[in-house]
Design goal:
single chain, about 300 residues, two-stranded antiparallel sheet
Amino acid sequence: MEHENIKYFLELFLSGLTKGSIYALIALGYTMVYGIIEIINFAHGEIYMIGAFTALIVSSVLTMFGFPMIAILILATGTAIIYSSAYGYTIEKIAYKPLRQAPRLSPLISAIGMSIFLQNYVLLAQTENFMKFNSLIPEFEWLKPYKEIIGTEELIIIIISAIVMIALTLIVKYTRLGKAMRATAQDRMMARLVGVSVNKIISFTFIIGSALAAIGGVLIASYIGQINYYIGFIAGLKAFTAAVLGGIGSIPGAVLGGLVLGWTESFGTGYISSDYEDVFAFSLLVLILIFRPEGILGRSTSQKV
């Protein structure tokens, strides 16, 4: 009996880690944009959705031509990253750049409008029904005996998410680009005076965030096995919750917030009821906002990215 309890706990822990890794990937896009220009990009969830649809289209075409699974995964993910990054760049130029000096409400309304536009654009271009998304991740033979605890897809999601998040942290902390991003986050005017191209840095931040969302879209669509035009809204809302939980504007906070949210949902549904999955997530958000409004890690005003 005790062995079964430990096994069940481990299953829930790893399931929460898988979910949390995806939430963290998407939350990083929210927190990076907010850290640079202090605007919430509410169209970010739709970038995640577009990445998933792009991977579905590319993988379907490549499967017809008999490409091997690993090639399909690499090419579909790469195309999704490029396509989603282009959308992120375009959204910044159209919906946010003209409103940088406007009152805070203006870019917020613009972001919501862009989110609705992208949802309906994909709805008209595709279908309102759920579409099957075949798994792009090959099975590991050596992992089959442990499939009840963790499958290949969950392991790949955790590993790729960890690699991406560590790489992003190192880029922001140690590279010249990262220094320019931190300078822009601290004071845009002073960053311009020391030669930083603020417009390019802001655009690049949107591109990075969109690329992360695309990776998350491909991984989670492959894991769940289906997508539709509305998946970006739910995923974006959960990722935004994760960013706020950890402390929006903080990269470690976004990662921690995603993991905490994933574990909260997993253990809540596992030990209480799966009917209240969203209730657990947003109840946690309410508690954090009441007792620690700045988030778990707080928000550094001197280094927001």
